């Protein structure tokens, strides 16, 4: 009985994953469920959804005007390099200086390891890596 309930819950969660993936970057429960389903089937989806829900949440992409601003912002004269990989959902190291976006204080940016990244200023969490 429990396996059947887990299977149904995993199916519902996987169905909602595709809807989330169409509108934003998916992490957290939906991303964990998708990864868990690939690795371990329906039971993996249920476990992945729980683990992902604890580890993260859905991160909405910033508005296009913020992305355009960061793409066009002049690069600093001094190059910033860190050993850690820049990952969406993870904070930048404290040694990296983030610059606020003048027209939208909900966002800031930095250029790290030759990558332009948009971050949440208060937590320094990476919202988007611009390719």
UniProtKB/TrEMBL annotation:
Please report the name of this protein according to its UniProt entry: DUF1236 domain-containing protein
Q: Which InterPro entries match?
A: DUF1236
Task: Give the record's keywords alphabetically.
Answer: Signal
Q: Does the keyword Signal apply?
A: yes
Q: What is the lineage of its organism?
A: Bacteria, Pseudomonadati, Pseudomonadota, Alphaproteobacteria, Hyphomicrobiales
The signal peptide stretch is: 1-21
